Amino acid sequence: MNQKVCTIPTVLTMFRLGFALTVSPFLLIRYLPQGDYYSSKLLAVMMFILVLTDFLDGYLARACNTVTSFGKFLDPLADKCLVGGTLLVLVYLKRIVLIGPVIIIAREIIISIIRYSAAQLHGELPVNKWGKWKATVQYGYLIYVIGTPWIPAYDFFIETTLLIVTILITMLSAFFYIKKFFKLRNKG
User: Fold this and answer.
1) Is the pTM of this model over 0.85?
2) Cα–Cα distance measured from residue 172 to residue 71, given in angstroms and rounded to the nearest whole number
3) Which of 76, 81, 90, 105 minimizes the C-alpha distance to 166?
4) DSSP label of 34
5) Count of other CB atoms within 10 angstroms of residue 82
């Protein structure tokens, strides 16, 4: 594993993390409440570009053999900040209800604790296909909510369905991580 810290994938991840913590919340709070078509679409494109950096940094790290311990730590942190921060901003704006974000953020905290515990056991819980599906569905849900001007009667069914699917895949992903953790713990 390459231990060089300043690689293109790491720079992309740091960009996503910095943007997720600063610019993204500001732009969402400033422009999303206006509810106009163009603001919503531009903010959805911004979110889509941030999502692309998540897929691109991992792809480049593997393709260029520049996977680092720092990148393996930073990438999930950037993802959690992007998803969690965006969910909290949407709750603050009263664009979504609190229960979905609570479940999703609680899952992220629990899995982070489990991953840390696995590392203490000298094991690793690598990202699996369910983790990738979870991220994809969460990103899709956020892009949809941001990109759709708020028309409650129209959006309720679609948005609720997307939220339920997002929560189900998020919890299913957690189940597989927890199951793998207990297998690892029982081995050691």
Assistant:
1) yes
2) 25
3) 105
4) G
5) 25
Q: Which residues contact 177 (CB under 8 A, 6 or more apart)?
A: 111, 114, 115, 125, 128, 130, 131
Residue (of 125, 92, 130) closest to 111 by Cα position: 125
Q: Per residue in 10-58, pLDDT tens?
A: 999 999 999 999 999 999 999 988 778 889 999 999 999 999 999 999 9
DSSP code for 148: S
Tokens read off for 108: 């992220």
pLDDT > 60? residue 1: no
What fold does the segment set 8-187 form as a domain?
Four Helix Bundle (Hemerythrin (Met), subunit A) (1.20.120)
Q: Kindly give, in sequence order, each residue whose CB lies less than 8 Å from that of residue 163, ignoring residues fewer than 6 positions away.
A: 96, 100, 141
Gyration radius of the chain over CA positions: 17
